Fold this protein.
Amino acid sequence: MLVAAFFLHAIVGTLWLRFGFSDHLAWVVWVAVGVAGAHIGLSAATSRSMLTDRQRPPSRRKRMHLVLKWASGGMLLAAALIHMAAGLTGRAPEARCFLLVVVALLTWHCLVGAKSLLKDLDIPTRLKGSLRALMITVAAVVCLALLL
């Protein structure tokens, strides 16, 4: 839901920048920001739990994957904050530029977590490739709309 909310934000924001669509749904972004905060908190709790589990200690591969998730998420957060600051201060060109960065980082973060997401939702992990293709397609459409 969180990824869908931010991709929806990107699509609506692109339409607003390109065609002047109404921004009456801006409150949805703040709901998504709250959900993102909850996601970060829950991720921190589950990461700590996994790293301190004495019965099933994480493998080196699992720890490295966790580092990749936090690195991609941290970069995404930093870029999103810059994008948000640029947008709130009325700097549309800078906001647009950082939106491209945010979309790229969001896509990377989602690609990293695709298998975990499918496991958490009890969906067969063989669909990971299809999910990743969908994420890349949506990101490409948003980026093309911003660049045209």
About this structure: The chain has a mean pLDDT of 84. The CA atoms of residues 104 and 132 lie 13 Å apart.
